């Protein structure tokens, strides 16, 4: 595997410079630089559409050792803008491996850099926040690179969903190779099948795999599909998927969800959770450096249990905005046991920074979570959230 032989530069918008070696495609790429703390799962991370607009730093030291296979993709192609790693493995060893990470990056035009101090980069992002950056294997004029970064569009207010959503509706027919053992075999559902419409804001395949495992017929529709068209399909429930960027950048999604609330059970994941909050009249805000990884502790306030969760988001819901307040809500959550905010119930709380991880509504059949209960990669602690969605639909029958 020919990597690490050509010079590459990573330059951040604040002027911080890291010199390393090229991995993947040659050229330049610009995006918001974030870090992911997962130890494994680089293939799932690369193909998660929620990373559109971002350059991902993997904090684990050696990446690529088990290669690339055909089963572990989370979309039809990688969506990251670029990849930053400490060391790319020269050996790819796994019985499912079909190609090396380097070859996969080249095939998909993903520019990467290896051989930099990813610990120092991660600490810099934690101290100063996620920021725009550029990886270049061609232009090494740092002043010119900084200029390019500062002229590039950021994430706030930008519609990235339109770049990752499907172009037309389709039915998901997975062969369920990864789910030969029914993970919900202990649950007795009243109905044999459930018809689910999934809004594709950048949906991960594992969400669709799990829905199929739960006896659901799954229809995936583009992000701009009208509420009336969705209701005409007569679904038992609607799932709002994960996706990239700022939820306020997709006003058409918010308006469609407003029309669906109260008419049909709704389940939101990640970006879908944020869109639900905005449709209910709440607000969202940008986190300093976001949550990206597979080791985030979340308290289920209603079950009184802690889940270790998979997360990937740069924005969060301000729970106090449902009361019409603007405040340092995370500080206030530390000193209050309150869970009701108007008609919105706080159901899940992040134990690292006390940000909102889940809500439900008092009157409407509606639940949402900020984390990824489908994992891939990550722990399976929160798979039961999908059972809650089934329960929600059954109560609405």
Order of helices and strands: EEEHEEEEHEHEHEEHEHEHEHEEHEEEEH
Given helix and strand content, the structural type is: alpha/beta
**Form type:** globular
Largest sheet: 11 strands, mixed
Approximate strand percentage: 25-35%
Helix fraction, binned, reads: 10-25%
Mean pLDDT: 92
Note the quaternary state here.
Answer: single chain
Q: Report the strand count.
A: 20
- Total of helices: 10
Spans where pLDDT lies below 50 across 5 or more residues: none
Ends apart, CA distance between termini: 56 Å
The rounded Rg comes to 21 Å
Output the keywords.
20 strands; eleven-stranded mixed β-sheet; globular; 397 residues; alpha/beta
Description of the molecule:
The structure is a single chain. Helix 7 packs across helix 8. The radius of gyration is 21 Å and the shape is globular. It has helices at 42-46, 101-107, 118-128, 142-151, 205-213, 227-232, 251-260, 271-279, 329-333, 384-396, and strands at residues 7-12, 17-24, 28-36, 54-58, 62-63, 82-85, 87-88, 111-114, 131-136, 170-171, 194-200, 216-222, 237-240, 266-269, 283-300, 305-318, 340-341, 344-350, 356-361, 366-369. The model has no long low-confidence stretch (mean pLDDT 92). Strands 10, 11, 12, 13, 14, 15, 16, 17, 18, 19 and 20 form an 11-stranded mixed beta sheet that branches. It has a 7-stranded mixed barrel with strand order 1-2-8-6-4-3-9. A hairpin with a 5-residue loop joins strand 18 and strand 19. With 397 residues, it is of the alpha/beta class. The chain contains 10 helices and 20 strands.
């Amino acid at each position: 595997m020919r990597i690490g032989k050509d010079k590459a530069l990573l330059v951040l918008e604040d002027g911080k410079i890291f010199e390393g070696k090229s991995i993947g495609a040659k050229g330049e790429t610009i995006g918001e630089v974030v870090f992911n703390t997962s130890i494994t799962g680089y293939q799932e991370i690369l193909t998660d559409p929620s990373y559109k607009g971002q350059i991902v730093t993997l904090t684990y030291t050696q990446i690529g050792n088990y290669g690339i296979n055909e089963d572990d993709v989370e979309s039809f192609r990688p969506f990251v803008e670029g990849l930053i790693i400490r060391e790319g493995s020269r050996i790819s060893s796994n019985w499912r491996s079909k190609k090396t990470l380097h070859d996969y990056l080249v095939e998909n035009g993903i520019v990467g850099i290896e051989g930099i101090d990813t610990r120092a980069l991660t600490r810099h992002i934690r101290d100063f926040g996620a920021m725009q950056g550029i990886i270049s294997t061609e232009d090494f004029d740092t002043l010119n690179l900084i200029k390019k970064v500062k002229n590039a569009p950021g994430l706030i207010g930008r519609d990235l969903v339109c770049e990752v959503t499907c172009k037309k509706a389709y039915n998901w027919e997975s062969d369920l190779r990864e789910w030969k053992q029914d993970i919900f075999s202990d649950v007795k559902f009243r109905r044999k099948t459930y018809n689910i419409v999934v809004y594709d804001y950048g949906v991960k395949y594992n969400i669709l795999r799990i829905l199929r495992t739960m006896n659901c017929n799954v229809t995936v529709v583009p992000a701009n599909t009208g509420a009336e068209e969705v209701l005409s399909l007569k679904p038992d429930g609607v799932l709002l998927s994960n996706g990239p960027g700022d939820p306020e950048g997709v006003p058409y999604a918010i308006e469609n969800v407003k029309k669906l609330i109260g008419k049909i059970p709704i389940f939101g994941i990640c970006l879908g959770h944020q869109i639900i909050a905005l449709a209910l009249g709440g607000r969202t805000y940008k986190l300093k450096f976001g949550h990206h990884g597979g080791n985030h502790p979340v308290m289920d306030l209603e079950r009184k249990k802690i889940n270790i969760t998979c997360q990937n988001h740069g924005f969060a819901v301000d729970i106090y905005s449902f009361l019409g307040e603007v405040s340092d809500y995370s500080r206030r959550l530390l000193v209050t046991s309150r869970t009701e905010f108007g008609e919105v119930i706080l159901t899940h709380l992040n134990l690292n920074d006390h940000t909102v991880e889940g809500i439900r509504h008092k009157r409407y059949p509606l639940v949402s979570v900020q984390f990824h209960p489908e994992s891939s990669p990550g722990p399976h602690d929160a798979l039961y959230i999908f059972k809650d969605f089934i329960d929600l639909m059954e109560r609405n029958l």
